[in-house]
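Standup notes
- DV: blocked on the single-chain target, sequence here:
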Amino acid sequence: MADLAPAYLRASFSPRPQSTSVMLLRDFLTPERANPHTPGSSKEEILGELVHLLPLDEKSRGILIKTLKRRENLGSTGIGKGIAIPHCRSLVVKRLHLAYGRKAQGVDFRSIDDEPVVSFFLIVAPPLEVSNQYLPVLGKVAQFAKEPDVPGRLRDLSSVDALFELLEEKGL
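- DV (later): unblocked, structure below
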């Protein structure tokens, strides 16, 4: 039986070809957006310092910090074992951004295990993104954080180079 749908409809509903390239966290994280010596001592200060790692103007930073605080009020992004993944969507960014911060002494982030958080992975994406990378990046960070040796290794990081070496070792 012949397909009665017009060609333009068939084309618009055909599956997109899958990309053969593997998405790496290192593709989104640059040395300038990683700080293994974050000075903040509270959740609010840490969020502000993570946002300041992104290439945004002051007004956009303020909006983003408020958005992240609202997200944290819904439920902590502290996933346990000293790791938090604060994340949100915001109109102040045009593409996905990833930043990393580390506070050696840890910060009360109301994590699910009630332990202080040492490592912070910030993920921010626009509300509508054609590339649809937000959830896959969030998933990769969460999967990375759940590896048995990663929380301890992140806790012991002393340099940006060590972070990138760990990501490379894990194939991320």
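- Follow-up: The first strand starts at residue 34 and ends at 35.
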